[in-house]
Amino acid sequence: MRSDIVNNEKIQPKIYDQLQSIMHYDFNYIRSGLDFILKQSSLAHVRPKKILVPAFICPIVPEVIRRNGFEVEFVDADLDSFNMKIPASDLDGIGAVFVCHTFGAKCEVPSGVKTIEDCAHFLSKEREGDFALYSMYKQIRNVRGGYVECDEDLSKTYDHLLTDSVRVRDLPLLFMNSRFFDLPRSLKGLPSCSPAESEKWDVLKASHLTKKLFEKKKLPDSDIYKDMKNAFNNLGLGKFFAMQKMPEGSVPYNFSIRVIDDSISRDELLLRLRRRRVFADRMWYNADTGSCKNAEILAETIINLPINLNSLVELKNAIPR
After folding, report:
1. Above 50 in pLDDT, residue 253?
2. Reduced to 3 DSSP states, what percent helix, strand and coil does the chain have, rounded to the nearest 5?
3. Is-contact 229 257, C-beta < 8 A?
4. How many CB atoms lie within 10 A of CB 128?
5. Mean per-residue pLDDT for 272-301?
6. CATH number, domain with residue 34
7. Is residue 230 very low, low, confident or very high in pLDDT (cuts 50, 70, 90)?
8. SS3 string of 124-152?
9. N or C: which terminus of the chain carries fewer CB neighbours within 10 A?
């Protein structure tokens, strides 16, 4: 595996092997996998019941952790990599650490403490911690789904779970990024999320269709990312935005930047891009930042562009004059 780009032919056997492993547990949602291991694995017995969590992360993560009786301690983000800044001091008083490889940027995994890796945006990442969470749909076309990889045999409780079913109304999820939907999507406002505390779902095994689609798909080619970095500089976009820095071993999920020009409204710019049929997102604008300064900055300024050169050209054209 190259340090910056993943070879699809090397990824596929790894995915297939994981699907066959007794230490692989697939779920209807990644959050279901997190909920399951907090209840059923050795994590349920860690003391103290306090988990270190990135302040810049999907708000459902701290919500699930709290629902399982753990205290959440937020760690601020690094404004370069967007990853959590893990304290250099010892982790006494912490039961576990939740490490997120934000948008595919490889994050350090600490030793000497239970760790959960969030690899939702980094499907090719090999597990370093005790548990790893992967998405079955974020980087490939699928309805939903996620899986957990670990060294613990949790089959006694896992086997009793019911299996998710895909309904007809779920099938449009397979085609949401199709050009066929570009026009109606471009006319809508920015998507928003329900508050994490109001979310309800059942913890289920992944559907048979989800597993079949996941097994057969390949990851998109990310060679274009290097070209986008060069284009970003050539277009003079560094005056308005800062690129996410990708540590060695990273694999970009998208082309993530943050607004650094105070005269630019991030949300207004995203709407301008939508009208131009460039569907960037503002993940995670709704992060439960725990009042951490850098995480608040990222939540207010983040822009995640699709990996194609045209998105940068349209970004420059969308900047208010």
Report:
1. yes
2. 35, 15, 50
3. no
4. 16
5. 96
6. 3.40.640.10
7. very high
8. CCCCCCCEEEEECCCCCCCCCCEEEEECC
9. C
